[in-house]
């Protein structure tokens, strides 16, 4: 059965790199969302939750760290693994820990680092 990985980012280069890198693994299905509202709607409506979320800290409607906190409030989503991505925070590791993210990725992303982090969770 395929693992579902939800990616929320508006940066096309990032989503292309993630898609290219992770779709090499036939056991991963990638779901792309562009804003926090789309992520929350998907989580509320989908009968099957994703196995992992990758969320950029900069989104058009809400900061990814705040979105992570919103997700963590709901009991249904507390155990859902979340990796925060950012090129703007030097202390993304502390931010990720503070908001309850499982891990973090610094931008610019490398295919190797993405594979390593995703494999450690999935």
Automatic annotation (TrEMBL):
Coiled coil: none annotated. It comes from the Bacteria. SMART domains: REC. The keyword Phosphoprotein applies. Keywords: Phosphoprotein. SUPFAM superfamilies: CheY-like. GO terms for biological process: phosphorelay signal transduction system. Pfam families: Response_reg. Residues 4-122 form the Response regulatory domain. This is Response regulatory domain-containing protein. It comes from Flavilitoribacter nigricans (strain ATCC 23147 / DSM 23189 / NBRC 102662 / NCIMB 1420 / SS-2). The lineage of its organism: Bacteria, Pseudomonadati, Bacteroidota, Saprospiria, Saprospirales.
